Amino acid sequence: MAPTDLMRKHVKEYIDDADDKTVQMVFAMLEAEHKYDFWDELPDAVKADIDVAIKQADAGELYSHEEVMEKYKKWLTK
After folding, report:
1. Contact by Cβ (8 Å): 15, 23
2. How many other C-beta atoms lie within 10 A of the C-beta of residue 11?
3. Confidence band, pLDDT 50/70/90 cuts, at residue 32
4. How far apart are the C-alpha atoms of 76 and 16, rounded to whole Å?
5. What is the pTM of this model?
6. 76 band by pLDDT with thresholds 50, 70 and 90
């Protein structure tokens, strides 16, 4: 049995024996995870900017962290 399948089996057993409060908490956690996608909450302008950034990255139009830090290191010293 795969590790995930074994975990599912144990979770089901725990739920069968759990008190009401625990069942409600687990249900709320699973329900929130199932319904929530942060992408849906983002404004359209932000989604568009992210799409542009992904296309730029895919095209190799990006800078490494080291390149950026070298260029702007003057901002870090006072």
Report:
1. yes
2. 13
3. confident
4. 56
5. 0.45
6. confident
Residue 26 CB coordination number (10 Å): 14
Domain ranges of the chain: 1-36, 38-78
CA–CA distance, 59 with 9 (Å, rounded to integer): 45
Q: Report whether 56 contacts 62 (CB < 8 A).
A: yes
CA distance 8 to 3: 9
42-72 pLDDT, tens per residue? 999 999 999 999 999 999 999 999 999 988 8
* DSSP H helical ranges for 1-78: 3-17, 20-35, 38-41, 44-58, 65-71
Amino acid identity of residue 41, one-letter, is E
Output 35 or 65, whichever has higher pLDDT.
Answer: 65
Residues, the chain: 78
